[in-house]
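job 3f2a | input accepted
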Amino acid sequence: MAKKVLVISTLDTKGQETLYLKERLEARGLEPLLMDISMRGDEASPADIGPGRVAEAGGSSLQEVRDSRERSKITNTMIRGGAKIAQDLYKEGKLSGAVGLGGSTGSLMATDVMRALPFGVPKLMISSTAALPGLSTRYIGTGDIALFHSVIEISGLSDLLKNVLDRAAAAMAGQVQDDIVSPRSAAGKAIALTMLGPCEKCASSVRDALTREGYQVIGFSAAGVCDRAMEDMIADGLFSGVVDLAPGGVGEHLFGFMRDAGPRRLESAGEAGLPQIISTCSVNHMTPAKSKYKPDYAQRPKYDLDRFRTWIRLSADELREVAGAFREKLNRSKGPVKILVPLDGWSSVDYPGNATYNPEEDRVFVEELHKGLNPGIEIVEVDANMEDPAFAAAVVKASIEIL
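job 3f2a | predicted structure (403 res):
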C-alpha cells in the first residue's frame, strides 16, 4: 500500500504550489493527504482535510475563525485542530510522514502541527523563511523536523520553485521507506543520558560502561532544548531508564534562565515508573541572559565557559529553592530513584582555586533535599569530583542495580 503523507499548507495563498507538491509526491508512489490550515479565503478548499474540519477539531468553527480579528487566538485554534487530527491519523496507522509548505506564519503553524507527531515520524518543512534569525529554532523547537529552505518565495510555479518542490518530494519519499530502522527497535534496553560539557568525561565513561552491559545509551545535551525533548520522548515510551547527570534545567526554569528545560523537566520518567539515576552537574550554577542580569550578579562567583557563556553560582537560598523543586518532582516518581552527589565538586568547573568552587555551600542543596524526601529515594554521597573516574564508576554501579 502507498505510504500516506500529510501535506500541511494554506491553500488560500499557496494553492497551486501545494497541488503541484501533491502531484510530485504521487509520482513518487506516496499518497498525500492535504490539510488546509487557511484562516481566510471564501472559496471551497480542494483539501482532503479542509479548514472547517481543522477549526472544529480545534474547538471552534470556520465561520468564527474567519470573523475573528484576534489573529493569535485563531492561529492557535487551527494549530490545535491540526495537531489533533495529525495525532489521530498516526494512532490509526494512517500516517507515515508529514510535509509543510509556507512562509513565516504558515511555517510556524505547520511545524507546530508536526511537533504533535512522535520522534521518528519523518517531518519536512519547506519554508521561504527558514534562514531568518530566530525563526529556524522556533520552527524546530524540540521536534525532529528537517528544514528545507526554498530561498525563493513560494509564490507562482516558476521552474525554480518546481525544482525546490521536486527535490522536497524526493526527500520525503526517501524518508518513509521501509528499510529505515524504527526508533522503537531498542524498546526495553534504551537508556536516556543527559550530558553537558563540564561533565562530559563522566557521561562518556558511563555511556561506554552501560553500552558494554548491553544497553543502548542515547545522549541529550542538557542545555534546555534537548533535555526538554528528552522529557517528551520518555513520555512517548522510547526509553526503559534514565541517567540524569545534568538536571540543571529544573532551576533554570524556576528562574527563567537560558538553559530553561520547561516545567516538566525531571517528571516524565517518574510518571512512567522508569528507574532513574539523578546527579547534580550544573545544578549549582545559573546562566541568565545578559539582559536579565540583576545588580548582585556581577558580585557573585562566576566562571566563563567561553566568550559567549558565563556560569554564575547560585546563592544558598536559590539552592534551597531548587532542592525543593527536585524533592517535589522526585517524590511523585512511581519507579526507583537514586541520587548521587559528588562531594568534591559537581562538574569540571568545580575545582579548588576556581571562584565558584564551594562544596560546603553545595551541602545546603543536599540538606534541603533530604527534608521530606520519600524514604525509598536514596541519596548516595561520593567522595570525588563528578569528573573523577571514581564517581563515574559509582554511577555505573548504581545504574546497573536499578535499571
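job 3f2a | The chain has two domains: 4-175, 190-402.
job 3f2a | closed
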